[in-house]
């Protein structure tokens, strides 16, 4: 099963993108901050557990 990303509102989409950009920056700097991925995952869990 795949989540339907079109169900995300724009605010949530922007938050996920912001968190991903921060994570990517930390990974590029050789110090990945996994807490950002956890936060992204929590957003998906919250949004899609309601479906």
List the helices and strands and how they pair.
Layout: H1 10-28, H2 34-49
Helix pairs in contact: 1-2
Polypeptide structure, described:
By secondary structure, the protein is mainly α. The chain has one domain (5-49). Helices cover 69% and strands 0% of the residues. α1 (10-28) packs antiparallel against α2. The longest helix is centred in the middle third of the chain and has 19 residues, at 10-28. It is elongated and about 35 Å long. The mean pLDDT is 94.
**Whole-number total of structural domains:** 1
Q: Please count the helical segments.
A: 2
Order of helices and strands: HH
Terminal CA distance = 13 Å
Write down the overall mean pLDDT.
94
Proportion of residues in helical segments: 55-70%
| Stretches with pLDDT under 50, minimum 5 residues | none
SS elements, strand count: 0
Shape: elongated
- Tell me the strand percentage band: under 5%
Structural class: mainly alpha
Radius of gyration: 12 Å
Largest sheet properties: none
Keywords:
0% strand, mainly alpha, 51 residues
Kindly summarize this structure in a few lines:
The protein has 51 residues and is an all-alpha fold.
């Amino acid at each position: 099963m795949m989540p339907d990303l079109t169900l995300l509102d724009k605010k949530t989409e922007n938050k996920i993108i912001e968190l991903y950009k921060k994570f990517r920056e930390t990974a590029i700097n050789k110090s990945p901050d996994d807490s950002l991925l956890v936060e992204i995952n929590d957003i998906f869990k919250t949004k899609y557990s309601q479906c």
